[in-house]
């Protein structure tokens, strides 16, 4: 049996990568693209993607459901439409797999409650890279034993925000298992402000920005006589695809909505 | 209540570090040193360790048990005596915590059976560094998702054997969760023999030996567009102490013998 | 005054990147593309590159020279045509900047002699990445003081050959300044063949091949109590452009042909 | 002919390491220890060092010179006595090799002038590790081509000051060859203060402090599509010895005083 997927966000770069990845999977098919324009056209007619088999574009969720009866919604859109897309999916018994970040805490809570009531499996993952998620998960596991931690995240110099979202998420996951405590020497002196990095419950975060860099993070956990380093390098968008495919299969087997890919890795 | 420990291997460097570490713990006390010579002397009289409170040396296990009634045997000796020490400990209801490597598979099996019959908790750990054990454990966890793996282990150039025991143990743990498969290009050519390293079920192991180095290992797990690197640096012997202390407390609560510190980390 | 460049190899990916890089430079212009076909067309008509200003294609070197009078030949072609292109350039007083690898030692010698006789500046560079060339240059400089060296080169698993050309070149540059000597323990034992890597005059080279990786190299130089690591990561083709632009300016000022970008970095 | 050395600072750990290193060199001999106490005793009588051949202690520089006629003063003392020691050495035609840091800029200038007038070779080196000095030297060389730079220095958590002296010295050497410029995105936002590190002419310095660490530094130089990383790890005090021995030989051949080991590495 073929798994039928509706894709929202086909025009983005992540959407484009997802089309290519899913086309290689024998038992998966993208049966429809959800968009706000070009209803009735096919993706290749809209020059969105050079797919062999035409994927029809729908602007109406209801009509899309009736005509294609999808199993899963893969949503790679933007914060302004993702909530509605997810709500419609859950209402229609379609499992949402969502990579869009920017949903508020309240929205996530409402959608989780709604999905669980309906018994519809779903996943919202701010990061679909399995390697990155394992780095975060292992950091939290190790932090129970090695409690002095610094994070170095490195990105290209076109990134505006520091620290990165992944570094903040890593710190949060560590904070859940580790007591806050002062790190470094108690009389520590910064002769140049900022040298010791950003502080978050004692942990330090350092943000590197250089031309050439892509997306990298190192979590350093130190103890007497030893150092454990967990590093992830993300070289291109293809690193998100295995996580997306794994999530698509996983939501079919569950009856609740989870937040974070780490919850479906064991 | 104070935990009473008998130490075997007090004259070695690990033994010496263990004395210092345990002396700092309020509810632990080394009540005796087990040795083959100098019965009746104290460790400081034998110039073994400059301990404040004299630790008496025993050459007879039976007499040691009668006079000091220890809870735990910490064995940091050599392969030729460790089996007998452990056997005697289990027989006398003393929990063994053993860092000596070199026990055969059959010996470990016999001791495990004996300890489990007697309901005596124990642990044999080839590596007491929590950081190193986490690196190995995480490697095996990650290998289920990122199946292409290379290990780089780096040691000082006075190390005779390659690959290191830790690298081999890591590979074994990975082999338990991952299918063997050819890595690299199928038409791969080594223009200089050895360039691609040692092969073990498709995994590659590379051994670096340089003056200056201590003990380091990196496990590289690659997938499309990403790399996860798990690295451990061991800078000195003090990195083994937290694992030893954790094991001493853990064996009191268990009724079986386990092999590998990873089994008492959750 | 504008520097007039003829490009050979416009249809390749390096050629395409070079067109984009040169178009951003105010005082440089690509006045012609040298090719074996499509004489008389413009690059955009051949769908080679979407350049704003048409670059005319020539199949005849002589006619190209007469009609465009270029200062510099930038050759990013293949081993089978590069010798003739360079010879023609030198004969016509056009300075060659050549990134094509695969010229034989004899060919390089002949071209060098010819260029020097004619007083024509030129450069053949197997690697135009300034960072990679500095890594190699620094390795050779440091090898005079830190004589125990291992090289780890890491590439994607679609690379057939091991070790990489850059690793071999690095080793050669080090061999010029360092005496051959046995590294590691004199009684060293490989329990798994290949663990200690490829040997070249005592130095060890280790080749990592993993999906996800791009092109990376680390040179480790060890001595008592310390380690110096020189690492280069090449993330994409744009890293070659600054070296190409630097070479184009440099050949105008010199009257001889040099091999290797390191000769124009001071 | 044997090179006669007077050692100031024999009671320190660096002094102790220097005695061991020099004892292994055939044509070098420590003929005297300069100290403020225990005149007339030998080092082993003062329990300073367990040397086979007794090294006599002198409290008077004049008498030391008359009785032992040394060629070189190796000064590994403290800021309060080093100036006078160096002055006395130069006055008596003894070449100073000085590892003590803490001399003021004015003192260095005066001593340099005095040594150059007298034609006495000498060297003051804040860091005698050849690897560390090469890392700094290469950073400055590379900074001419790769102008976006971040420094990560990592030390044990007992270090009070941040950034480290080596990081500051590296930054200074880079500032001499590179124009100050803003690095990172022009609209960069720090959501947690300090994330982007300390700023020094656009360069960023990040200080890591963790238990277990020793002394490490990484200089990252980025450009389009590439990253050059120069890293030094200092594992123990023995890494300073080759630099000290090299300096002892070098000062015999020169007639001026230099500041920084980089000046005698070519």
TrEMBL record, chains A, B, C, D:
Keyword annotations from UniProtKB, A to Z: Amino-acid biosynthesis, Cytoplasm, Diaminopimelate biosynthesis, Lysine biosynthesis, NAD, NADP, Oxidoreductase
Residues of the active site: 155, 159
Positions annotated to bind NAD(+): 9-14, 35, 99-101, 125-128
Residues annotated as transmembrane: none
Entry-linked Pfam families: DapB_C (PF05173), DapB_N (PF01113)
Class in the EC hierarchy, top level: oxidoreductase
SUPFAM superfamilies for this protein: Glyceraldehyde-3-phosphate dehydrogenase-like, C-terminal domain, NAD(P)-binding Rossmann-fold domains
Binding sites annotated in the UniProt record for NADP(+): 37
Domain Dihydrodipicolinate reductase N-terminal: 4-128
GO cellular component: cytosol
CDD domains tied to this protein: DHDPR_N
Protein purpose: Catalyzes the conversion of 4-hydroxy-tetrahydrodipicolinate (HTPA) to tetrahydrodipicolinate.
Subunit structure: Homotetramer.
Name by which UniProt lists this protein: 4-hydroxy-tetrahydrodipicolinate reductase
Protein's organism: Sporosarcina pasteurii
Gene designation: dapB
């Amino acid at each position: 049996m073929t798994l039928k997927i509706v894709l929202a966000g086909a025009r983005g770069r992540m959407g484009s990568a997802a089309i290519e990845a899913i086309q290689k999977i024998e038992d998966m098919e993208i049966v429809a693209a959800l968009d706000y324009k070009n209803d009735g056209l096919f993706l290749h007619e809209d020059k969105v993607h050079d797919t062999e088999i035409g994927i029809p574009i729908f602007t109406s969720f209801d009509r899309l459901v009736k005509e294609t009866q999808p199993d899963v919604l893969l949503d790679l859109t933007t914060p302004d439409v993702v909530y509605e897309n997810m709500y419609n999916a859950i209402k229609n018994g379609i499992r949402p797999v969502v990579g869009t970040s920017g949903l508020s805490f309240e929205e996530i809570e409402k959608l989780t409650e709604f999905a669980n009531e309906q018994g519809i499996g779903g996943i919202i993952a701010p990061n679909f890279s399995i390697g990155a998620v394992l780095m975060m998960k292992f950091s939290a596991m190790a932090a129970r034993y090695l409690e002095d931690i610094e994070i170095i995240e490195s990105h290209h110099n076109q990134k505006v925000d520091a620290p990165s979202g992944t570094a903040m998420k890593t710190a949060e996951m560590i904070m859940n298992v580790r007591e806050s405590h002062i790190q470094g020497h108690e009389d520590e002196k910064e002769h140049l402000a900022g040298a010791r990095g950003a502080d978050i419950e004692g942990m330090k975060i350092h943000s590197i920005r250089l031309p050439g860099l892509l997306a990298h993070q190192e979590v350093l956990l130190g103890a007497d006589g030893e150092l454990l380093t967990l590093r992830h390098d993300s070289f291109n968008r293809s690193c998100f695809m295995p996580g997306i495919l794994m999530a698509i299969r996983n939501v079919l087997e569950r009856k609740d909505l989870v937040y974070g890919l780490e919850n479906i890795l064991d």
